[in-house]
From TrEMBL:
Keywords: Membrane, Transmembrane, Transmembrane helix
Keyword Membrane among UniProt keywords: yes
Pfam families the record matches: NACHT
Membrane-crossing segments per the record: 57-80
Organism this protein belongs to: Phytohabitans rumicis
Domain of life the protein comes from: Bacteria
UniProt-recorded name of the protein: NACHT domain-containing protein
Source taxonomy: Bacteria, Bacillati, Actinomycetota, Actinomycetes, Micromonosporales
PANTHER family in alphabetical order: SLR5058 PROTEIN
Boundaries of every NACHT domain copy: 217-308
């Protein structure tokens, strides 16, 4: 039986039966059938009645004979005819059977072919699946290994990688000289802090690369050299290959565009397929790639668009760029559903990809820097902590380290040497070498240019020296071109090539970059300072004298330090700083000051001592020891603790073993005041070594150390990572807790940081047995420094039962230990607690901000929109959503939902309003009006407003309504002052916090009203810090505040508060005599604030202030 066209076909097996047998069988069956038919007719025929007639026998015989003859003839004829019929029937049957056999054979062959094709397709599909899986596995393994510069072994990308952030790119704006001037001038610290502020602002609108991939589908990521663009793309490819971004998008096609151009292949997919064949054994991948791209199930990741510009003449480079852009554009059009990401240096981006968004790869912020360092050192937390501390205390190196490549270099240097170079110039020089030469070399990029590396450095030195003399951080394009054009003939290049040279340095190396349309600057201010120092060294004594002449200007300080470390003999430089003849090696006469005309802040002496910290060569034999000795005396006799401590820090960095021993001996010298001893103890932790740590451990149990001194020693031991100090630290901690001392936290922090699991267990025991909740909270706070995994579990288990106050300490410590990875679990625990998060809710918000996690978004929205949840918690949650851009569209919908309660509308408006969504303006205005106009009755209401008012005001400022918000807040504050002689300080604090966010500038009229209520309202301003004080208080009230500080009618605490506010806002030199008189009083706090005020006035007015009342202008920056 066989199947044919859906029917069963009965096919006789003709091979077993011959044709005759078939014929006989057929005949017999045919005859039998016919006779049966005749018999039936005969039986069924009707019978008739016949009359019997006699018939003769002869007739009967004759008839019978005739009948017999007829029957014989008939039968013969019948047999003949029958034989003929049978033959024909046999032939017909045979032909029918042949046809049936042929049909069956064709059907069988068709079915067999279909089955074979199906099997082939299944086998091919399995083969492709296996090939794809093998490709994804091998690609992931390859991408997971990262080699940086000249490291001998690769690094684990997953273990090292720190999440980069991107934001939608903003085209370079057109800026006027008036706009750029505030960004160009100022102290280096101000400019570095401004740079850090801009980075934080950029971070507020940032997103993860995978979020950009989902949001835009296709983008070009722009960044400076070393910004991490390639590493970001490799990590994206790695996560895609492992199916960690989306369930469907699991096929990354990773292409290095420089290799594509070098191959000569015209089709990127064909090049990628050929690469897969050679590298991963994936044969005929191009069809699969095309199919998956067409379905939107593959991602094309194209690295290094700018690199196609290298290694060729300008015309060839332009053609290569155009060719790549056209090909990417073609693929984008051919596969509209495909995900495509391209990376490119900012200066190398020439546009051309119309359907692509451009995003900017952001520098690392401090949390990312710290995470990178800890990832780098892995299971060596002591080394990680040491480098983190070194970076925290050096703003310039920290600013450089915001570039991931330079941070890697810093880690490599530290890993090899266990310290950063004493001469920072060595580190900066290494960074320049990497950016100028080695980065391209290690990536296999060869750039042909008329410039050698040495000539590039010469030009950068010329640019750095020229503009640093003018005090400029950013410079106009035309002026920069003029400097380059004047330099080029000195190396035999025509000035007409100035623009091409500038483009080359900016595009290929990134050391100079566009800051705004028509404005350039170095990648970092530190690099400008470095090149200026190198140029001064090359130019000789005249240039060094010029630098010394500018020594009182903070703008030149770093150049001085770098210059001291580079020169063959720093003696002339140091003598010049001290106001002495640079060419005279004569020591000072007895009782004469070492710094001949120093100011009240001892600027010259301390500047010379700081130069010694870089271990320069000093050939004048008495000079080094004299500087150290006079600085040592200043540590012991300084008029304020702040001056004593800054001097001690400089001395620890500049001195050797002998000076360290003298300082440690002073710690147990009870004849020396407590202030200098505490300053010494703190300073030793910033520059000491294992020897210093051992000596500090030995004196920790001394009765000569009071609680304050023991705390300072503990801080230094923690900074020095001296684990042998644990027994002494534990013993001293137990002693301090028995005395119920406030000095327990530094000791507990040191035990947590250095004691490992046993130290953490000791602290947990102390917490469980603490006599007061305050003591338990302090110890809980210290657990943030532990590295024991058991602490994380122990902390999270305490969340449900913790007090409203204690919860902040748990949150801070837990997130310090776990980072963003622990945030979801902690938030779940917090949201499961009934009621509020207590008065420390702002601390909790701050802690979560530092460890933002995208996985929190859904939970946060649920909490924000829950009307039954505590109001302060909902406002706190809204602040956390600022870091979750993927959820903003959902929040925007909640803002306009009819069933949303009022707080949901306001808090949702705050989330999206801070990022410029105009639709949030009216709800935010309504919220500020309502929250400032109601009576404030309970502590809970004040807590809500403390969270809500600053947040709402900040959003309104972002939307351009800052003046409106300021007017409303001032109206409310003025009304409070008229209604009560002493306004509620809590209410005032909430309003003042909001007013500080208007950032409109100091308010003269309001400041005068504030004086009428001083000192009752001073506490909040002191708590908020100098930046807020400068924002709100007008400098014009400084003389009146100073008069309060001199008043004998106020308490010491109130006088200190008045002078601290003066130090923050004073600008007028007319108050200098009063401040100088306060420097001689027997009150350390007053002296400290008076000196701070003098320093601020000096910097603001660019003058030097002397103890005798003289005021001298600082040398102007611009050259004559």
């Amino acid at each position: 039986m066989h199947r044919h066209n859906g029917w069963r076909v009965l096919r006789p097996d003709l091979s077993q039966v011959d044709g005759g047998a078939v014929t006989q069988q057929y005949v017999r069956s045919s005859v039998a059938h016919r006779w049966c038919h005749i018999s039936i007719i005969a039986l069924t025929a009707p019978r008739r009645s016949l009359k019997r007639v006699p018939v003769p026998v002869e007739l009967i015989v004759a008839i019978i004979g005739a009948v017999a003859t007829l029957v014989g003839v008939g039968f013969g004829f019948y047999q003949w005819r029958r034989g003929q019929g049978l033959d024909r029937e046999r032939l017909r049957l045979e032909q029918a059977l042949i046809r049936e056999q042929k049909i069956w054979e064709e059907a069988w062959e068709e079915e067999r072919t279909a089955e074979q094709e199906s099997a082939r397709q299944v086998a091919q599909a399995e083969k492709i699946r296996d090939a794809v899986e093998r490709y994804r596995t091998l690609l992931a393994n390859e991408l997971a290994q990262l080699k940086i510069l000249d490291m001998t072994k690769p690094l684990d990308l997953e273990a090292l990688y720190v999440q980069l952030r991107v934001r939608e790119d903003r085209p370079a704006r057109f800026a006027s000289p008036e706009e750029m001037e505030p960004l160009s001038y100022g102290t280096p610290e101000h400019l570095l802090q401004l740079s850090a502020k801009q980075s934080r602002e950029a971070e507020s609108s940032a997103m993860r690369p995978e979020d950009a991939l989902r949001r835009f589908g296709r983008f070009v990521a722009l960044g400076d050299p070393g910004a991490g663009k390639t590493t970001m793309l490799r990590h994206l490819a790695l996560r895609l290959a492992r199916g960690e971004i989306t369930e469907d998008l699991t096929l990354p096609i990773y292409v290095e565009l420089r290799e594509f151009v070098d191959s000569g292949v015209s089709d990127i997919l064909e090049f990628a397929a050929d690469t897969c064949r050679r590298r991963y054994g994936f044969v005929n991948a191009v069809e699969h790639f095309a199919e998956r791209l067409d379905a939107g199930l593959a991602a094309l990741l194209l690295d290094g668009l700018d690199e196609v510009l290298g290694g060729a003449a300008a015309e060839d480079a332009a053609r290569a760029y155009r060719r790549v852009v056209d090909e990417v554009d073609r693929l984008s059009t051919r596969y509209p559903r495909a995900t495509i990401a391209v990376t490119c240096r900012r200066a190398g981006w020439q546009g051309g990809l119309r359907a692509f968004h451009t995003v900017e790869v952001l520098d690392f912020g401090w949390p990312q820097i710290e995470t990178f360092v800890r990832n780098w050192f892995g299971n060596e937390p002591a080394r990680a902590d040491a480098l983190v501390t070194a970076l925290q205390t050096n703003l310039r190196v920290q600013t450089l380290a915001a570039n991931p490549l330079i941070l890697s270099l810093v880690a490599i240097v530290y890993d090899r040497d266990l310290e950063l170079p004493e001469r920072r110039a060595q580190l900066y020089n290494r960074c320049v070498e990497v950016l100028l030469k080695e980065w391209d070399t290690h990536r296999g990029i060869r750039r042909f240019t008329r410039f050698t590396t040495d000539r590039k450095r010469d030009l950068l030195e010329e640019v750095g020296w020229h503009f640093h003399q003018q005090g400029l951080r950013y410079y106009p394009h035309d002026e920069l071109l003029r400097v380059i054009a004047e330099f080029l003939p000195t190396i035999d290049i025509e000035p007409v090539h100035a623009q091409a040279i500038l483009d080359e340095i900016a595009a290929q190396y990134g050391l100079l970059k566009v800051q705004a349309n028509g404005w350039y600057g170095f990648l970092h201010l530190t690099l400008q300072e470095y090149f200026a120092a190198v140029a001064a060294t090359e130019r000789g004594a005249q240039a060094v004298a010029l630098v010394v002449q500018h020594r009182h200007d903070p703008w030149w300080e770093e150049v001085l330090f770098l210059l001291a470390g580079r020169t063959v003999d720093a003696s002339p430089l140091l003598l010049g700083i001290l106001g002495r003849d640079p060419l005279s090696a004569d020591p000072p006469v007895p009782d004469a000051p070492l710094a001949l005309d120093d100011d009240v802040l001892h600027h010259d002496l301390l500047l010379a001592a700081r130069c010694l910290a870089g271990a320069p060569r000093v050939r004048v034999p008495w000079l080094r020891s004299a500087i150290i000795e006079v600085t040592y005396e200043l540590v012991r006799t300084a008029p304020s603790p702040s001056m004593s401590e800054s001097s001690a820090r400089i001395l620890v960095a500049a001195g050797g073993r002998a000076i360290h021993d003298r300082l440690i001996d002073d710690l147990i010298n009870r004849q020396l005041g407590s202030g200098p001893r505490t300053s010494i103890a703190r300073a030793l932790g910033t520059g000491g070594d294992a020897y210093v740590a051992a000596r500090l451990t030995a004196i920790l149990s001394s009765r000569a150390l009071d609680s304050r001194l023991a705390s300072a020693v503990a801080d230094s031991l923690r900074a020095l990572r001296h684990s042998p100090a644990i027994p002494a630290l534990r013993a001293r901690l137990d002693r301090e807790l028995v005395a119920d001392s406030n000095g327990a936290f530094p000791l507990a922090a040191a035990v947590a940081a250095l004691g490992g699991a046993s130290g953490a267990a000791h602290l947990r025991h102390l917490i469980d047995t603490a006599g007061t909740r305050q003591t338990a909270n302090v110890l809980m706070w210290a657990l943030q420094y532990s590295r024991d995994p058991a602490v994380e579990r122990w902390l999270i288990e305490r969340v449900p039962d913790s007090s409203d106050v204690g919860i902040a300490f748990i949150v801070h410590s837990y997130l310090a230990l776990t980072g963003a990875a622990g945030a979801p679990r902690l938030l779940t625990a917090l949201l499961s607690r009934p009621g509020s998060w207590g008065p420390s809710v702002s601390i909790i918000v701050s802690a979560f901000h530092e460890h933002a996690s995208p996985s929190l978004a859904v939970q946060l929205v649920g909490a924000l929109t829950d009307p039954d949840r505590d109001a302060s918690v909902r406002w706190a949650v809204s602040a956390l959503l600022d870091d979750q851009p993927e959820i903003w569209p959902l929040v925007a919908k909640w803002m306009v939902r009819q069933d949303a309660d009022q707080l949901t509308v306001w808090a949702s408006a705050a989330v999206i309003g801070s990022h410029g969504y105009g639709a949030a303006r009216q709800p935010l205005r309504d919220a500020l009006t309502a929250l400032t106009g109601e009576e404030w009755v309970s502590t809970e209401e004040i807590a809500v407003r403390n969270l809500a008012l600053p947040r709402i005001t900040e959003c309104l400022v972002a939307l351009g309504d800052g003046q409106w918000a300021q007017d409303l807040l001032l109206t409310r504050i003025n009304a409070m002052w008229q209604d009560a002689a002493t306004p509620n300080t809590a209410v005032f604090g909430a309003l003042l916090a909001a007013l500080g966010h208007t950032d409109i500038g100091p308010l003269a009229e309001w400041s005068t009203g504030f004086l009428d209520h001083f000192p009752a309202l001073s506490g909040y301003l002191l708590y908020k810090g100098a930046d807020v004080r400068r924002t709100l208080l007008h400098p014009s009230i400084a003389p009146r505040l100073l008069a309060r500080a001199e008043s004998e009618l106020l308490t010491d605490e109130e006088r200190h508060a008045a002078l601290e506010l003066v130090a923050a806002i004073a600008q007028d030199v007319t108050v200098v005599p009063q401040l100088l008189s306060l420097c001689s009083v027997n009150d350390d706090e007053l002296v400290r604030h008076a000196l701070d005020a003098l320093e601020n006035i000096g910097r603001h007015n660019r003058v030097r202030i002397f103890a005798d009342g003289r005021i001298a202008p600082v040398q102007p920056r611009t050259t004559p």
